[in-house]
Design brief:
This protein is α/β, with parallel strands linked by helices and about 240 residues long. It is about 25% helix and about 25% strand. Its EC number is 3.4.13.21.
Length: about 240
């Protein structure tokens, strides 16, 4: 299985989409001689699907086609060399994945055909068991919580531990702690901007363009920050690097 789960699509000041992760992404594409990818852009609400596909084609140097052009979306996934799932609104994305019957086809493509899955922000959220740790508003009245479940632990992308002056609501740490209190058997991995988790075969690794760590939240335990995935060895069925 090949997963690249990115906290976000761009760093501040970057013009190129996925620029901070480009070296790792292109290494995967080159190793598998991948020349095309299918983009699932359903998370985009105020952006154009085809414009996002064009931007990704230019950034990655491969042909990227948006799945909304497919007569049968499941068939498009079944024949895909690579799956790209864009950021945007996680609730919209997950709902449309279910409405277009894409959950099982994506699971089979990644697990059975070893098709690389590259998802950022919302695309990272839906790779976990559910979207309960998204930061996004539930913009659809009809919502679904279970998601693709390729990665076994909940992730909170775009994680920030700053407390904004004048903001009287809960901090991100407090919100995630609430999740763990309600779901004491579950953990949450908090990924800062410019960071990613990569599953390659049975190996799990971590990368941060800013040389920052990730945090792991567990109910009743101190919040700690880590620079490598050894801290996740008891949570995931991968060899942690």
């Amino acid at each position: 299985m090949e997963l690249l789960l990115l906290s976000n699509g761009k760093l501040s000041g970057e013009s190129e989409l996925l620029g901070y992760a480009k070296e790792r992404i292109q290494a995967v594409l080159k190793s598998r001689a991948i020349t095309s990818a299918v983009l699932v852009p359903y998370a985009l609400i105020r952006s154009d699907y085809d414009e996002r596909a064009t931007a990704l084609s230019q950034a990655l140097g491969i042909e990227v086609t948006s799945i909304h052009h497919a007569d049968n979306p499941a068939d498009a996934i079944a024949s895909a060399q690579c799956i790209l799932i864009s950021g945007g609104n996680t609730w919209m994305l997950n709902q449309l994945l279910h409405e277009n019957s894409l959950i099982v086809p994506i699971q089979r493509a990644v697990r059975e055909r070893n098709v690389p899955y590259i998802g950022w922000s919302a695309g990272c959220n839906v790779a976990t068991p559910s979207i309960r740790t998204t930061n996004d508003m539930p913009v659809r009245n009809s919502v679904v919580l279970p998601s693709i479940g390729l990665f076994p632990v909940q992730i909170n992308p775009h994680y920030i531990d700053a407390h904004v002056s004048g903001h009287m609501g809960e901090t991100r740490d407090e919100r995630i702690a609430e999740f763990c209190a309600v779901n004491p058997s579950e953990s949450v991995i908090a990924l800062r901007e410019g960071s990613l988790l990569q599953v390659s075969g049975n190996d799990l690794s971590y990368f941060s363009a800013k040389d920052q760590g990730f945090k792991v939240f567990r109910h009743g335990q101190d919040i700690e920050e880590y620079q490598d995935t050894q801290a996740l060895s008891g949570l995931v069925p991968f060899t942690c690097r």
